[in-house]
Amino acid sequence: MERVVITGLGAITPLGNSVQEFWDGLKEGRNGIGPLTKFDGKAIDVHVAGEVKGFVAKDFMDRKSAKRMDPFSQYGVAAALEAVKDSQIDLEVTDPERMGVIVGSGIGGLNAMQDQIIKMHEKGLDRVAPFFVPMAIGNMVAGNISIATGAKGPNLSIVTACASGNNSIGEAFRTIKHGYADVMLAGGAEASINEIGMSGFAALNALSTSEDANAASIPFDKNRHGFVMGEGAGVIVLESLTSALNRNAKIYGEITGYGATGDSFHMTAPSPDGSGAARAMKLALSEAGITPEDVGYINAHGTSTPANDVSETEAIKLALGEDAARSVAISSTKSMTGHLLGGAGAIEAIAAVKALQEGIMPPTINITTPDEACDLDYIENKSREKEIKYALNNSLGFGGHNAVTCFKKWEGQ
């Protein structure tokens, strides 16, 4: 069994188009959510979003390649290239057949789907763009990353709704742990801030209707009423410890456990007792070989919906036990980014790894009215400095998908 470490990080987020900008924003408690600018959402009573700002695809890839990608693929490729550069891995000497990609998306190329269906309807069946299919299908973020980096090992995309990014990281971890690859690029990407994406979630009464960006994504607050759509991507370089040590790589942290379960309860609602998420947390702890008391920080799924935040609170209590649950520090960074759907678990994994590395836990901002049903320590409004050894990253998706990864502070061999 190989130990698996993190040697590179890459992110495109509403807080900035690099890991440094993203992490600085989280530490400062800066809100990346702002007015919805991509279309007029008044008809569905949606006014804010966690939009990526100032992203220019040709800054990360050639213009021809960019034109053949939906934004979700562009974000994923950009994040992957940052992660590879950050890892300082030499692609000229790395065995491409031992380097793979597992990067998922909850929805895939929704912009291409919307644009080309409208074009087909207005101009005819023969006017659909030649690259519509490879722009739309969700696996192409992993495919495009493989092409951009030369990775020829396992090349997969996982679709588990809002758990996609975290499941991808967990499965990539296992791929290296059990010897099928030495290096994996893992994470998630999403670009669903458009008319059909937002209208679909609005029809489910899932989105915040607030006009105030500071009162929209408010996880664990009593006045929460829906999530805020975000977009972007996160990709991390996972590497066997053997490979990392052989090339004297910079190591951010270690991934030590992973749990994946199903609620078998409802298409969109989590199990109220949190039992499915709790089992995923317990599985991650078991694989990591640690006790609940060892966990110093949890990056919660924390969507700011009434059902999720209560259910997740119950899950943490059920998984850790009442005493450990009340002593662990928890935050939802979705309060600053919105919900990136399939990309959420990936950027939140980066947040967990950086929290361990720097001893700074990001806050849950804009909590003004604590909810009696959400009665744990949610690091309200301001980041907290504390040396911690283990962190969990929770992701829960429509369909009852639960994914939890466990990270360890790197302290040497």
What can you see in these coordinates?
It is a single chain. The chain is an alpha/beta fold. Helices cover 35% and strands 19% of the residues. It has 2 domains: 4-246, 3-Layer(aba) Sandwich (Peroxisomal Thiolase, Chain A, domain 1), CATH 3.40.47; 255-409, Peroxisomal Thiolase, Chain A, domain 1 (3-Layer(aba) Sandwich), CATH 3.40.47.10. β13 (390-397) and β14 form a beta hairpin. α7 packs across α14 and α10 (275-288) crosses α11 (306-320). The model has no long low-confidence stretch (mean pLDDT 97). It has a 10-stranded mixed β-sheet with strand order 5-4-6-7-1-8-14-13-9-10, sandwiched between helices. The protein is built from 14 helices and 14 strands.
Secondary structure: elements and pairs:
Layout: E1 4-12, H1 19-28, E2 34-35, E3 48-49, H2 63-67, H3 71-87, E4 99-104, H4 110-123, H5 132-136, H6 140-149, E5 155-156, H7 164-177, E6 183-190, H8 195-203, E7 232-240, H9 241-246, E8 253-262, H10 275-288, E9 295-299, H11 306-320, H12 322-327, E10 329-331, H13 334-337, H14 344-358, E11 360-361, E12 384-385, E13 390-397, E14 401-409
Parallel strand pairs: 4-5, 4-6, 9-10, 9-13
Antiparallel strand pairs: 1-7, 1-8, 2-3, 6-7, 8-14, 11-12, 13-14
Strand order of the largest sheet: 5-4-6-7-1-8-14-13-9-10
Helix content: 25-40%
- The parts where pLDDT drops under 50 for at least 5 residues are none
| CATH fold title of the largest domain | Peroxisomal Thiolase, Chain A, domain 1
Q: Whole-Å distance between the termini?
A: 15 Å
The ordered H/E elements are EHEEHHEHHHEHEHEHEHEHHEHHEEEE
Q: How many discrete structural domains?
A: 2
Q: Compute the number of helices.
A: 14
Estimated structural class: alpha/beta
Largest sheet: number of strands, sense, barrel closure: 10 strands, mixed
Average pLDDT taken over every residue: 97
* CATH uppermost class of the largest domain: Alpha Beta
Shape: globular
What CATH architecture of the largest domain would you give? 3-Layer(aba) Sandwich
CATH superfamily of the largest domain: Thiolase/Chalcone synthase
